[in-house]
Design brief:
5-stranded antiparallel sheet; alpha+beta; SH3 type barrels; single chain; 5 strands
Length: about 90
């Protein structure tokens, strides 16, 4: 029994190291990205994964947002493709 445990110990340690160095940080990054995307609101300046920089004109419920990339030029963008929020707008005071 001791020999079997001793032979599996390196395998268990490798899995533990992989979990803490690769899997857990990736899950945290994904969770942070989802929170950022859910917090998008009109007026935020964003960068898409394609490199477009624009201002959020409209947030839709179906996983899309409308981004104004130039004056009068609006494009529909899938929310998940937003890679960064450059500046946040302050929420409207009620």
């Amino acid at each position: 029994m001791d020999g079997a445990l001793a032979s599996f110990l390196p395998l268990i340690l490798i899995f533990a190291i992989m979990y803490f160095l690769l899997i857990r940080p990736q899950q945290k990054k994904l969770k942070d990205h989802q929170a950022m995307v859910e917090a998008l609101r009109r007026g935020d300046q964003v960068v898409t994964q394609g490199g477009l920089i624009g201002k959020v004109a409209k947030v839709k419920d179906d996983g899309e947002i409308e981004v104004e990339i130039a004056e009068g030029v609006k494009v529909r963008v899938v929310k998940a493709t937003i890679s960064q929020v450059l500046s946040k707008t302050e929420p409207a005071k009620s």
